[in-house]
Amino acid sequence: MTGTADAAAIDAALADFRTMMRADGYVLGWEPSGPDAIVVKIDATEGACADCLVPPPVMQAIMASALESTAVTVERVILPAEH
Questions:
Q1: Per-residue pLDDT of the chain (83 residues; tens, 9 = 90+)
Q2: What is the CATH number of the domain that holds 63?
Q3: 83 in a domain, yes or no?
Q4: Which SS3 state, helix, strand or coil, does residue 67 take?
Q5: How far is it, in rounded angstroms, from Cα 35 to Cα 44?
């Protein structure tokens, strides 16, 4: 990643998904994992809807699709441990 412009593009690409996750009791975050890749981490808050998360391969595909307009790829998605 090259800086704040990339971070802003990633945040914008994930904004709608972040809002949906928040409504189900989850917090979506990300961090760089290389020059052109990120790791997406989804954490559960108290009372999160356990049935609302999709399986890891589906979540990976959703995140990859959401980020198609950016210069980064998703290295992996980390879901809450009990999922």
A1: 556 669 999 999 999 999 999 999 999 999 999 889 999 999 999 999 989 999 999 999 999 999 999 999 999 999 997 54
A2: 3.30.300.130
A3: no
A4: coil
A5: 28
